[in-house]
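[Q] Does anyone have a clean structure-token version of this?
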Amino acid sequence: MLQEAIDLRVNPSDETIHLGPLAVRFLLTADNSGGSIAAFELIVPGASRLAAPTHSHDHYEETIYGIDGVLTWTVAGKQIDVGPGQALCIPRGAIHRFDNNGSRDVKALCVITPAAIGPQYFRESAEVIDAAAGGPPDRAKMAEIMRRHGLTPAPPQA
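[A] Here you go.
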């Protein structure tokens, strides 16, 4: 039986981070879950692409649950549409990215297990994306941030 008091509340993190047109709203972080899970809501406006390079992560799975709209994930070279009520688990080591190919905004829930990544990665990425002022972000800076937070950028496509 748990002896210490637990601060139970809805959305204990509840932090929104803007990465250009995208928004990431953290609901749970490693600090809220003993490191077992991180969860964030992802909002991707219509006709938007992931600004960060295609990447993989070796230390956690990422599960996507579609809430509204359709997000196209490219995982290991295969395109997979994730719409409302659908889930996709991206295994460790799988190279992936996403795009919103439609005109409708997308909302998805992303769950990271274990919680090996959190808001700090997105805060640092937002700085680089915002500094690009709508152009492509500095790939070397993004790659450095990604590596520090346990993501592996994929080599650029020819």
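[Q] Thanks! Anything notable?
[A] The CA atoms of residues 26 and 40 lie 4 Å apart.
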